[in-house]
Each structure stands twice: as structure tokens, then as C-alpha cells.
Amino acid sequence: MNSDLGRLLDEVGAVLLDFDGPVCSIFSGYPAPQVAAELVDLLRRRGIDVPPDLAGEPDPLEVLRRTNAAGDQGITRALEDALCVAERRAVETAEPTPYGREVIVAARQAGMSVAAVSNNSAGAVNAYLAAHRLAGHVSPVVGRAYADPERMKPNPEPILQAVHALGESPGRCVLVGDSLSDIEGARAAGVRVIGYANRPSKVDVFRRARADIVITSMDALARALLERIKAANT
Q: What's the predicted TM-score (pTM) here?
């Protein structure tokens, strides 16, 4: 595994990290189903007739996406604002992913650029990075387009936005993500992709989706980066 990772890292100059998963579990202390339910309550207070399947939706991003599809931009903006507030609250109790910090620091020590590309709001990502003394290591931070969830991953736009900000070509970047939307977005953007399978059920799914490499712990990536640093210093 490390040899495969080493070869991939030799071919890229920038690491793009999804946030919720590779860096932290944003909703570990403020569960995503609770946030989703609060968004649904907001819709009801606005007089929206919420269908049963949406009322039971556990993913706040999906609540936002489906609300936007209904076509009322005023409601979408209200939901977006509420979700941004909830995400800022959530990062205060977010659980760091084991070895996520080490990956960021080792990548920078290896001379690589590190960016964050998230379907969460940029404000929440920046708040987490600042609280964990990582803000100086990660730039740019590309978050969810305001009140326009169709531009979230798997749309390649945010990935390409980060690539262009770094001044790299897509083929010289690798995205680390823990969802199919990350893999599909990376493929559409023409960047390499490491699937972080933080649940066993994701391993085969990510392989079928043609992730370049599948890892089950961020430790594997951290070790490969440290080996690259060691080789450069010998």
C-alpha cells in the first residue's frame, strides 16, 4: 500500500482534502440528523409543506439540496444561513480524524500544497482550522457555494477552483475524500483521488468507483508522506 501511495505522491504537488471525514467528524458532537431536523422545522415555520421522506432525511446537506430543487430562492437562502450557523456550532465539538492533522503537517513538510474542498461552509472549515492551529497549513479553503447546492461535489467546480487557486494542473493534484461524491467529482475534474474508506462497506464501493487508491486509515497516507520526507533528506 505505501509503495502505491508513494508512487502517487511522487506524481502530484498538491493534496486536496475533503473536510468532513479526512480532517474531522464535523457533526460528532452535534449530530447531523439533529441539524437536519432543525432545518425541516425551519421549513415548517416558513409554511412549507414538508413531505414525509424529507421530514425523515438525516443529512442536512440533502435537506438543503432538495429545498433548493423546489425553486424558492428565499427559502433556500434562509436554510443556507441556518445551516452555516449550525456548522459553526458543530465544529466546536467536532472530533478530529485520527492522523488527519499529521497528514496536513507532513504534506506541508514534504513541500506540497494543501487545500480543503468541502461541501460544508468555508466559515465552518476555517473556524475548525483556526481552533486546531492548522489555518497556516491549509490554503485555499473552498466551501459550499452560498445557497447553490447544485455546485457542491460531485460537481467538479469547487475542486477545480482549488486547483486553479494553487496554480497546479489537475493531474498534479490528488483529492482525499470519504464519499462517492468526492470520487466522482475528482474524476470529473481530472484530479487523482484517494478514497478514505472510514467504514469497511466503502472499500469495494470506492474501488468500483475507480479511486486511484483506497485507504482505511489516514495513518497510511501520513506514513507515506513521512517516507517521502525521509527519502528527500537522505
A: 0.97
